[in-house]
Amino acid sequence: MNLRHILIATAAAVAFASTASAEILRFSSFEPPVAHVTKNILTPWAAKVNAASDGELDIQIFPGGTLGRNPAQQLQLVEDGVADIAWVIPGYTPGRFDQGTIGGLPFLVPNGTVGSKAMWSLYEQGLLTGDYEKFKLIGVMTSSPNAVASTVEVRTPADMKGQNFRAPGPTMLSAIDALGAVPVGGITGPGMAEAMSRGLISGTFTQFSAIETFRVGETINYYLDMPLGATPMLIVMNQAKYDSLSEKAKAAIDQFSGKVFSEDFSKSFDQDVAEARERVLAANDISVIEPDDALTQQWKDALSLSTTEWIAGHENGQVIYDAFVMAIDEAAAAN
């Protein structure tokens, strides 16, 4: 064996030993592997952390429900140690991370970037407690605002009366109830299209990224473009697993987590929503309703009760609401 072959063999052996000794972390995503968040946000994040750890970490993405198919299972996967990290939609587990449901109030979050900055501000101010303190938080975000995607024409609040409607969280379900519609919970993103095609619901509060990912564009006929509440989102890690890691491994995770991750996630999410909108509308026959100021005011008046009820139903509700509004204004001004 010549010197070149010896060097190659030695390098391969070192690489293998490094990989073999790395701490494997399982990262669960309910999305398909080619969906935007999993492919363009979560997977690159894992690669950056792995590189920064100098071989101490091997974060592996398990997409498409490999560890658990139901989006509502993701938090439990982390708590049970089946997954070490997961992308979690708190609205699928009502009662958990309840303070963050403020992001679902109508007419507050103008886009995911501003909403995520405001949500992280609440966390930094110590206003997100309880469940938020039980996990290592990789990111605290909101989606772009959800609007009304439906099989029936919904133009005014009165058009909602008596219709079965789905939303991705309790705050938006309360808004649906305030409009005189029938709120339908328990339907996760992957189940939206089937629920509408079977006539179980007339529509849902959602945004174009979800419409594209879960093939909802093939079932809806109308889209009322109005910011009726964002979807709070989290990337959580099992705290005990994080605590067990070396200082170098922890530092690698911390370097790309928290405020940095939340802002990077939301900017990419907003861009994808804008691009998905173009693709979905080009591929499907969907009537987009753009409300004027008078129609917008009708919806604000009809939904004002949902904000009043949220504040009254949460300890320190007014304090959290005021802080969120101020953080949104500051983020929007800086954006």
UniProtKB/TrEMBL annotation:
User: Residues of the signal sequence?
Assistant: 1-22
Cite the entry's keywords alphabetically. Answer: Periplasm, Signal
Listed under GO biological process in this entry are: transmembrane transport
Kindly indicate whether the keyword Signal belongs to this entry.
yes
| InterPro entries cross-referenced by the UniProt entry | DctP_fam, TRAP_DctP_sf
Q: Does the keyword DNA-binding apply?
A: no
Localization: Periplasm
Query: What superkingdom does the record give?
Result: Bacteria
The GO cellular component terms are: periplasmic space
Q: Which NCBIfam families match?
A: TRAP_S1
Q: What protein does this entry describe?
A: TRAP-type C4-dicarboxylate transport system substrate-binding protein
Q: Which organism was this protein described from?
A: Pacificibacter maritimus
